[in-house]
Amino acid sequence: MEKIEIKIVGLSYSQTQSGAYALVLAEKKGKRRLPIIIGGFEAQSIAIELENMKPSRPLTHDLFKSFADAFKIKITEIVIYNLIEGVFYSKIVCEQDGKTIEIDARTSDAIAVGIRARCPIYTFENILSSAGIQLENEDIESGIEDEFIENKTKKEEELSLEELELRLKEAVENEEYELASKLRDEIKKRKEK
After folding, report:
1. Which of 65, 69, 80, 105 could be joined to 110 by an S-S link, Cβ 3.0–4.6 Å?
2. Residue 26 is inside which H or E element, if any?
3. Looking at the structure, do residues 31 and 123 belong to the same domain, yes or no?
């Protein structure tokens, strides 16, 4: 079976499940999206890396990557290889001393580690055809799925620029990186106006 490369195009609070986040992946060469519901900790870890934020102490996925580096294990790819009853199954593919090693992992953890390793993410046609969403909109790069992603809250829209900057500082200090990412984007958007 031929692997299909996918990339992260969106991450936000899930409107369908309380306390969860929607990670939206997309075909690199296509219009299908693959939404995956993940937990808050994993979403925060992915957001931190995507936004190039540096936490004061390493998170679990940073530790995993550092551990791999220390023992000369190269993380080569992440593969979402199965979907059973709504649960995605993934593996982290590594190499050490010319030997390939596959490590079973939750998809959210595999992706959080994979983006730190700057390695590609793959899946298969059967998974995209059963769980993927075909986009009718031609705007592939926007990464925004109204059905799954909420960009900002009404409260953030009502805050002044100074209040937003204060909330951003507090969010970073409290290690609330998902919130910090949203606040930073809102500040950037307002400054560009």
Report:
1. 105
2. strand 20-27
3. yes
Inter-residue contact 37 to 25 (CB < 8 Å): no
Say how many domains are in the chain: 2
Which CATH number goes with the domain that contains 71?
3.10.690.10
Tell me: do 140 and 191 sit in the same domain.
Answer: no
d(CA 179, CA 159): 14
pTM for the model stands at 0.71
> Three-class SS string for 78-126?
EEEEEEECCEEEEEEEEEECCEEEEEEEEHHHHHHHHHHHCCCEEEEHH
Residues 53, 136, single domain; the answer is: yes
Reported as a single tens digit per residue, the pLDDT across 96-120 is: 999 999 999 999 999 999 999 999 9
